[in-house]
Specification:
By secondary structure, the chain is an alpha/beta fold. The protein is 48% helix and 16% strand. Strands 3-2-1-4-5-6-7-8 form an eight-stranded mixed sheet. A hairpin with an 8-residue loop joins β6 and β7. The N and C termini lie far apart (51 Å).
Length: 242
């Protein structure tokens, strides 16, 4: 894969374009809004400036070189025309995604792989049938140029070769993809976080602890143990204590 099209220049789109540019790829960033594209250019400049201050840019080239790898367009056909991989990062609305997929189907190469950044929608119900074999979910976390986790989910008809190609690409970018066997809304990390949030609200609502105490318990205990034991390790230890 040489050419990457990122569709949607919002919160995730500009960050994804930055990641692929850092990986040496030519990127076309698309959005229907010219204002969004202008804002994306500003945000991408800030991303590269931040990474330069952290000493990361030196490993990948100058800021100007990175910027030259990204082209901005409001024309979808231009973005998709020569794409080897199309990354969908538009708003979480089934109707908008379905409409976008239909338009992409009319202008994207049949050889292109499609990867949706959806965090909650089963996009395989929205895709044209002839695109199912080369489509999957690749859900990134913000900011994608710092957070390495990517949830990868094949659809019922996704070809193993398409899955392997996207996984290899992510790993070449230094990311840590997790391949789920099938779709579930929220995937792993977000579902665990949601469960933790429910317990936080329970402790607060029932008057067991203050927000400050809960933060202290996480920062001074749970967060320190998790990198070493992981969730599974913590669960085993808790079961032993019980």
């Amino acid at each position: 894969m040489k050419n990457i099209a990122v569709v949607g220049a919002g919160l995730m789109g500009h960050g994804l374009a930055s990641v692929f540019a850092l990986g040496g790829y030519k990127v076309i960033l698309h959005d229907v809004s010219e204002d969004a594209l202008t804002r994306a250019q500003e945000l991408i400049s800030e991303v590269f400036h931040t990474l330069a201050e952290a000493g990361v840019i030196d490993q990948h080239g100058s800021t100007s070189t990175l910027k030259d790898r990204i082209i901005f367009t409001s024309t979808l056909a231009t973005a998709a025309a020569q794409a080897d991989l199309i990354v969908e990062a538009v708003t979480e609305d089934a109707g908008i995604k379905r409409s976008l997929f239909s338009e992409l189907d009319s202008c994207a190469p049949l050889t292109a792989l499609w990867a949706s950044n959806t965090s909650s929608l089963n996009i395989f119900d929205l895709l044209p049938s002839r695109r199912q074999a080369k489509s999957l979910i690749a859900h990134w976390y913000t900011p994608p140029y710092i957070v390495d986790l990517v949830d990868v989910v094949p659809g019922p008809g996704t070809e193993p070769e398409a899955l392997a190609a996207v996984k290899d690409l992510l790993e070449s970018l230094g990311k840590k993809p997790i391949v789920l066997s099938k779709f579930i809304s929220g995937f792993i990390a977000n579902r665990l976080q949601a469960a933790l949030n429910l317990e936080v609200f329970f402790l607060l609502d029932q008057g067991y602890a203050t927000p400050e105490q809960i933060d202290h318990a996480v920062k001074s205990g749970l967060a320190l143990r998790m990198p070493f034991l992981g969730i599974r390790g913590l669960s085993v230890r808790l079961r032993e204590m019980i």
